[in-house]
Specification:
The complex is a heterodimer of chains A (204) and B (369). Chain A has 204 residues and is α/β, with parallel strands linked by helices. Chain A contains 7 helices and 7 strands. Chain B is an alpha/beta fold. Chain B has one domain: Luciferase-like domain (TIM Barrel). In chain B, the strands form 2 sheets. In chain B, strands 1, 2, 3, 4, 5, 8, 9, 10, 11 and 12 form a 10-stranded parallel beta sheet that branches. A two-stranded antiparallel sheet of chain B has the order 6-7. The longest helix of chain B is centred in the last third of the chain and has 24 residues. The chains are: A alpha/beta (204), B alpha/beta (369). At the A-B interface, α2 and α7 of A face α5, α6, α7 and α9 of B.
Chain lengths: 204, 369
């Protein structure tokens, strides 16, 4: 399966990327996967310009295509001001403006990192509603890693459980047949004009 | 093929001097630009329609009527006429009147308008944008073709025994283009009626324009108006030229950097690489414009945006000289090469009238035979 990892970490090396890589490796252990990592730091300027230009730049468009084509998505953000980072949100805003169905029905594993465990509910109060809105299927286990978790027990177990859920769900959903009559990727769907006119005609 | 210019009608400070033209100066400048377009041999002048500052053209037929009186050949058009918030009855009347005054040198481009507050100011709801465009145009289409209209719809007072006056010149409705950037519904609408489709591609990468134009062409054929290649396509373009391309870049960059639409965003280099904007020599403009055909097919109308972002009138007039003298003659010649004989020109009043007369004669022949 195609597994795409979106990491919003900013420093190099980054704890966010470290968590993202652990999640990706654990998922790939359970289901053969071709992993592609999208580092949002490298796309930061193109993401901002999507809002000023109205369309994504070349590298960002390639990242959007990869996300849309993925069987499973791992999305990891650092916690900024009690929520996902602005860059992380902006990536998904720009994605949904460009292709509002990009995440529909897609299995997503959410992760976050922070300096303290006091922000761990960011997964359920910020990331989960975001992906619910984008109509993704978020796996039940999210993984939050505070600084202290990197030296404590428990993180491994949560990574393993979340990865197993994503592997199972990705296999299941991506194996489901495409709905009949679905147009090719590039085709634009259109409602026949008579139907539009008819819908506006007064009753009786 | 038709070549022309379209204007947004923005009042924007010149970033190099800080000076903002008055509304009167800007309106008069738009007229001067239209007159220049005819002088340098362009075919079309189109004005936008806006109902909020910093834009001046709220009353397109007033401006176009004045320009009609001062020109002889120029086709007067819009970019766009708001089919959502205007009353279709008033559009029918205004543009039929303009047709008579301009001896048929009139067509128009329908658009929805994307400024949220304009809808409620005119008593409409932006969420109904597509439906407004569908219903209003369906009515407009009838008002120009049927002498007496009885009509009832969702968005407007019903009409009983209504005749829109004056009737269109020679009984020929003005040709209509439907402009849209992102909405396949509008490409479908244009195809359904066999009208023209204008893709204002100036801020968009080529692959997006290609998809929209292909959709329109295929649906045009689906509705039996001709082959996909015979559909009537118009495209936007945006250029700034100097003889020496380095001079063009140097002079245009301060305008680009703070332009209302793309300012403070991408670099001039990125934007010219990804969109139709060309800043350089006339030869570069020629090459880039000719390449539009690679993804849009042989098309009928090319409009350039020349007078925005605070560029002074003097500069715009110089640009039009370059466009008319060095660019368009070459484009006419090159676009004509390898153009299949069955690809039509954009309909004009004269061509539509000739077609209508021929159909009438054919019918009479049929009756006599």
């Amino acid at each position: 399966m195609k597994l795409v990892v979106v990491s919003a970490g900013l420093s190099v090396p980054s704890a966010t990327r470290l968590l993202a890589d652990r999640l990706a490796a654990a998922t790939a252990d359970r289901a053969p996967a071709e992993v592609q990592v999208v580092e949002l730091r490298d796309l930061a300027v193109e993401i901002a310009h999507t809002f000023t230009n109205g369309f994504p730049g070349r590298n960002l468009a390639a990242a959007f295509d990869a996300v849309a084509a993925a069987d499973g998505l791992i999305a990891v953000t650092p916690v900024f001001s009690a929520s996902y980072s602005g860059l992380f949100k902006s990536f998904f805003d720009a994605l949904s403006v460009t292709d509002e169905n990009a995440l529909a029905g897609k299995p997503v594993l959410i992760g976050a990192t922070g300096g303290t465990a006091r922000h761990s509910l960011v997964l359920d109060h910020a990331l989960r509603p975001l992906f619910a809105y984008l109509r993704a299927v978020v796996v039940p286990t999210g993984v939050y890693a505070a600084s202290e978790d990197w030296g404590a027990e428990g993180l491994d177990g949560r990574i393993a459980r979340a990865a197993a859920e994503l592997a199972t769900l990705s296999g299941g959903l991506s194996a489901a047949p495409e709905p009949a009559g679905k147009p090719a990727d590039d085709a634009v769907e259109v409602v026949p004009f008579e139907e539009r006119l008819a819908a506006l005609r007064p009753a009786g | 093929m038709q070549f022309g210019i379209f204007t947004v009608g923005d009042v924007t400070p010149d970033p190099t001097t800080g000076r903002t033209p008055t509304e009167r100066e800007r309106i008069k400048a738009m007229v001067a630009i239209a007159l220049k377009a005819e002088e340098v041999g362009l075919d079309v002048f189109a004005t936008g329609e806006h109902h909020n500052p910093p834009f001046v053209p709220s009353s397109p037929t007033t401006m176009l009527g004045y320009i009609a009186a001062r020109t002889e050949k120029l086709i007067l058009s819009t970019s766009t006429t708001l089919i959502t918030t205007n009353d279709p009855v008033k559009i029918a009347e205004d543009f039929a009147m303009l047709q008579h005054l301009a001896d048929g040198r009139v067509d128009l481009m329908m658009g929805r308008g994307n400024t949220g507050p304009v809808y409620p100011w005119f008593g409409k709801d932006i969420r109904e944008g597509i439906n407004l465009a569908v219903e209003n145009y369906a009515l407009l289409h009838r008002l120009w073709r049927e002498d007496v209209v009885n009509w009832e719809g969702k968005f407007r007072t019903p009409l009983q025994g209504f005749t829109s006056t004056p009737r269109p010149l020679d009984g020929i409705a003005p040709f209509v283009w439907h402009g849209s950037i992102r909405s396949p519904e509008i490409a479908e609408q244009a195809a359904y009626y066999g009208d023209g489709f204008f893709h204002n591609n100036i801020f968009w990468p080529a692959d997006h324009t290609k998809r929209m134009v292909e959709l329109y062409r295929n649906r045009y054929a689906h509705y039996g108006h001709g082959t996909p290649e015979q559909a009537i396509v118009g495209l936007g373009g945006q250029v700034f030229m100097r003889k020496n391309s380095q001079d063009a870049v140097r002079e245009f960059r301060p305008y680009f950097d703070v332009a209302p639409v793309y300012g403070h965003g991408p670099s001039l280099e990125d934007f010219t690489a990804q969109t139709p904007l060309t800043v350089g020599s006339p030869q570069q403009v020629i090459e880039k414009t000719l390449a539009f055909r690679d993804y849009a097919g042989d098309y009928q109308r090319q409009l350039f945006l020349m007078d925005h972002a605070g560029l002074p009138l003097k500069t715009v007039l110089e640009q039009l000289d370059l466009l008319g003298e060095e660019v368009v003659p070459v484009l006419r010649e090159e676009f004509a090469k390898n153009r299949p004989a069955n690809v039509p020109d954009a309909p004009t009043h004269a061509s539509l009238l000739a077609t209508a007369r021929k159909e009438r004669e054919d019918r009479q022949e049929g009756v006599r035979a």
